């Protein structure tokens, strides 16, 4: 039988209180039953249930309190150690800055002391303006100074060097000041020595020359430090024996190269060897020679043709006799016959009439006609003839150009023939012996000169010749395609040829490329003392820097930062800095490969943790109307925003005089020039083309004679091209010739795009840049004037009609212009 189950807990009630006799009896009975270990089941269950209820309540209460405390503590610990890291691995960011994040230690007390010293030692007119003080005291790693014409930047730079050396204790061998030309370098060194002397600092001239450099003189020692290149010579300075072995040989314009005989000898030797070793090069040269020498076709509708076609039959009747006269002149000059040209008197057809040739160029299937040398008398005539031989020959040339369908080579003069003869005879020092005109160039040049010019332009843009040529394309039949294929073969051979010389020879462009951004590992080979002068750079005329040099500068600054504090151990000058001064309105060397882009986009080109921009708008040279006229000429060109110059200092007190523009008249120009010269003023005669200078000699004879009798320091007339006048000034400036862009360069447009220059989507970025540059060139010329400027321009006709001209920006309605053209 199953045990009896207890009542439910809810049915139990507390027992009633017993009387005391019953309680006594129950207690005695309890003791007896306990001894007998007797158990009352219902009582057990009743007590168990009551205890369970109370115990459960107490347990829940106790457990809840204890659990809350323990849970809070456990929860708190979980919050403290929770792992919030991302699931993916962390990747550091890339620091592209060229400089450490540091500042020059220029305190307020130092500024106050330096300003007081400058006020005491420099004259009142040389005291810096607020903007110039900002330049001098710039403490950021990079500084861009926009300094217009006449802004007094040179004095500011000198004071900046004084601050670094004398007040901050920076070592001079940690600094370099870069100027662009030999003359500007001399002027800056002179000013530096003068200012340091005012502070009783004995700066030795040799130390000043080591501090103030050109880019070329700074790159040369870097290359000479490499094994095997200790005696390296620069190709650009070959033949300059007076400066050989000296770094001063590099103090020239970084884009200028005029070939001398020593350089030509190397070019011709390489040409001769390559001609023998490369059948493809020989084939290209033969085709280019034929293209270059061949008489260029002339439109039969051309006015000259229409005028002379009427005498075709008459000219043919006298042609054989005319050929005899010309041939006799060449024979007497020792210029005929020519080895490699077979003499013959074949005839060619011109509108049914027969004209004679003098020979046939072997291997090219081209007929040769001898021209009338310009050195012969223009009045020379055949017996009984009405016209001079020169005029008769001009008629024949025109008719052959318009109507002859045979390949004809026209030898214009004896010198041209001698060069061709030497080349055909295989003379190693003669070179190709013909000229070639690359499309877009203003004139033809000897072939190897054209090679050097094109290669220099490509390399100035920071490109390699072979890859650049490979990326070009030309229309079918365009001879420029053959020219650049030949250039690629020749340039590779030339660099190898130059390195094989003893001592080796290298172009400056190759030197810069060796230490540029594509070859940064080469910089790691340099010892600290060679790299240290590039640590604190101050560069003038920065708007004319080339992409090639920008690449070298960036690579050098990056290497200095990579080496870190160890490079500057034990020295006051640490880290690196760059201060660039320029004016994008004065960027006028784009045709050689420079670009204002790097100055206009300075912060992007030279990334830095902090940068300072200084605007020097005070013009201490020009009266205000000259400034306003010059700025009006460039208002249509892209420029740094916020530029508006004002006449300051003594220039602000000068009386205004508008820039006067005239139709070209050399005699009238000279008359006004003589008037200013007679008043004791300094005058500057500027030519757009160097050839114009000869036209003015007779008009300026009296002034030239007076100048020749004076010591050099007292002379008041300077004759210069617009480009070479940069940085100079005169009381009165006379400009002869307009500024215009006459051509278009297919190959330069292509390499410009390869170099990343120009605006996106512009198919002719170089042409666009040149159209803007002609306006800047006029700005440079006008701002040479202190008080007066006279501009004589030719009428827009013929080839120049419709092309961009700077004079088209002249606005006679403006008070700062007086347009007298047509009056």
Summarize the structure.
This protein is an alpha/beta fold and 823 residues long. Helix content is 43%, strand content 12%.
Instruction: Give the CATH topology of the domain at 108-232 and 512-616.
Output: Rossmann fold
- Rg: 44 Å
Structural class designation: alpha/beta
Instruction: Assign an overall shape.
Output: elongated
Helix content: 40-55%
Name given to the CATH architecture of the domain at 108-232 and 512-616 = 3-Layer(aba) Sandwich
Q: Mean pLDDT, rounded to whole units?
A: 88
Q: In what range is the share of β-strand residues?
A: 5-15%
Query: For the terminal residues, how far apart are their CA atoms?
Result: 147 Å
Number of contiguous helices = 30
Strand order of the largest sheet: 3-2-14-15-1-16
Word description of this protein:
There is one protein chain. This protein has 823 residues and is an alpha/beta fold. Among the domains are: 108-232 and 512-616, 3-Layer(aba) Sandwich (Rossmann fold), CATH 3.40.50.300; 295-406, no CATH class; 637-819, 3-Layer(aba) Sandwich (Rossmann fold), CATH 3.40.50. Helices cover 43% and strands 12% of the residues. The strands form 7 sheets. A 6-stranded parallel sheet has the order 3-2-14-15-1-16. Strands 21-20-22-23-19-24 form a 6-stranded parallel sheet. A 4-stranded mixed sheet has the order 5-8-9-10. Helix 5 (153-167) packs across helix 6. Residues 1-15 and 242-250 have low confidence and may be disordered.
């Amino acid at each position: 039988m199953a045990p009896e189950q207890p009542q439910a807990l809810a049915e139990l009630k507390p027992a009633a209180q017993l009387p005391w006799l019953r309680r006594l009896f129950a207690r005695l009975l309890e003791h007896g039953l306990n001894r007998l270990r007797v158990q009352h089941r219902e009582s057990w269950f009743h007590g168990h249930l009551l205890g369970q209820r109370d115990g459960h309540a107490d347990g829940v209460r106790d457990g809840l309190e204890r659990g809350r405390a323990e849970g809070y503590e456990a929860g708190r610990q979980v919050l403290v150690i929770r792992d919030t890291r991302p699931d993916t691995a962390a990747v550091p960011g890339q620091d592209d800055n060229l400089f450490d994040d540091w500042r020059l230690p220029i305190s307020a007390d130092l500024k106050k002391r330096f300003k007081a010293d400058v006020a005491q030692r420099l004259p009142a007119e040389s005291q810096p303006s607020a903007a110039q003080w900002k330049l001098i005291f710039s403490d950021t790693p990079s500084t861009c100074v926009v300094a217009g014409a006449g802004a007094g930047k040179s004095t500011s730079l000198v004071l900046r060097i004084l601050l670094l050396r004398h007040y901050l204790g920076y070592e001079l061998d940690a600094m370099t000041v870069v100027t662009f030309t030999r003359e500007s370098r001399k002027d800056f060194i002179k000013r530096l020595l003068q200012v340091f002397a005012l502070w009783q600092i004995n700066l030795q001239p040799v130390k000043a020359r080591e501090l103030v450099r050109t880019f070329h003189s700074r790159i040369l020692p870097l290359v000479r430090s490499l094994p095997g290149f200790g005696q390296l010579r620069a190709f650009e300075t070959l033949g300059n024996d007076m400066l050989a072995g000296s770094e001063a040989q590099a103090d020239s314009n970084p884009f200028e190269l005029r070939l001398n005989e020593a350089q030509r000898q190397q070019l011709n030797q390489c040409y001769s060897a390559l001609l023998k070793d490369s059948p493809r090069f020989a084939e290209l040269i033969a085709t280019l020679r034929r293209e270059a020498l061949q008489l260029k076709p002339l439109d039969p509708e051309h006015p000259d043709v229409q005028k002379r076609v009427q005498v075709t039959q008459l000219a043919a009747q006298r042609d054989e006799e005319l050929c005899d006269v010309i041939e006799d002149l060449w024979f007497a000059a020792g210029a005929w016959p020519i080895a490699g040209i077979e003499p013959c008197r074949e005839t060619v057809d011109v509108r049914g009439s027969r004209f004679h040739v003098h020979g046939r160029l072997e291997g090219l299937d081209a007929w040769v006609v001898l021209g009338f040398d310009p050195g012969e008398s223009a009045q020379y005539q055949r017996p009984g003839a009405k016209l001079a031989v020169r005029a008769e020959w001009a008629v024949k040339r025109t008719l052959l150009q318009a109507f002859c369908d045979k390949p004809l080579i026209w030898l214009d003069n004896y010198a041209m023939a001698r060069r061709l003869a030497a080349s055909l005879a295989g003379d190693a020092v003669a070179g190709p012996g013909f000229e070639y005109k690359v499309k877009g160039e203003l004139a033809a040049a000897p072939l190897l000169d054209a090679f050097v010019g094109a290669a220099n332009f490509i390399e100035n843009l920071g490109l390699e010749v072979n890859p650049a040529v490979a990326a070009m394309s030309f229309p079918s039949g365009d001879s420029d395609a053959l020219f650049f294929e030949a250039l690629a073969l020749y340039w590779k051979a030339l660099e190898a040829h130059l390195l094989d010389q003893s001592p080796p020879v290298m172009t400056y462009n190759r030197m810069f490329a060796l230490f540029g951004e594509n070859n940064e590992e080469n910089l790691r080979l340099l010892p600290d003392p060679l790299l240290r002068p590039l640590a604190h750079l101050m560069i003038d005329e920065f708007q004319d820097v080339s992409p090639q040099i920008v690449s070298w500068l960036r690579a050098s600054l990056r290497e200095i930062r990579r080496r870190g504090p160890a490079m500057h151990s034990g020295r006051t000058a640490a880290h690196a800095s760059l201060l660039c001064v320029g004016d994008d309105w004065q960027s006028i060397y784009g045709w050689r490969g420079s670009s204002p882009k790097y100055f206009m986009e300075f912060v992007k080109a030279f990334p830095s943790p902090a940068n300072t921009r200084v605007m020097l708008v005070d013009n201490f040279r020009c009266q205000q109307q000259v400034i306003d006229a010059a700025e009006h000429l460039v208002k249509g060109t892209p420029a740094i925003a916020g530029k508006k110059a004002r006449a300051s200092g003594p220039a602000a007190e000068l009386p205004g005089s508008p820039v006067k523009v005239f139709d070209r008249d050399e005699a009238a120009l000279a008359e006004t020039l003589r008037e200013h010269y007679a008043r004791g003023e300094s005058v500057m005669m500027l030519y757009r083309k160097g050839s114009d200078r000869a036209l003015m000699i007779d008009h300026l004879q009296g002034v030239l004679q007076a100048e020749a009798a004076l010591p050099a320091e007292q002379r008041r007339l300077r004759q210069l091209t617009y480009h070479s006048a940069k940085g100079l000034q005169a009381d009165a400036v006379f400009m002869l010739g307009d500024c215009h862009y006459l051509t278009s360069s297919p190959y330069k447009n292509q390499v410009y795009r390869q170099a990343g220059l120009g605006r996106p989507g512009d198919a002719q970025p170089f042409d666009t840049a040149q159209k803007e540059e002609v306006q800047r060139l006029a700005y440079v010329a006008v701002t040479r004037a202190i008080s007066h400027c006279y501009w004589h321009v030719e009428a827009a006709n013929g080839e120049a009609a419709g092309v961009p001209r700077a004079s088209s920006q002249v606005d006679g309605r403006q008070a700062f212009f007086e347009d007298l053209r047509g009056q």
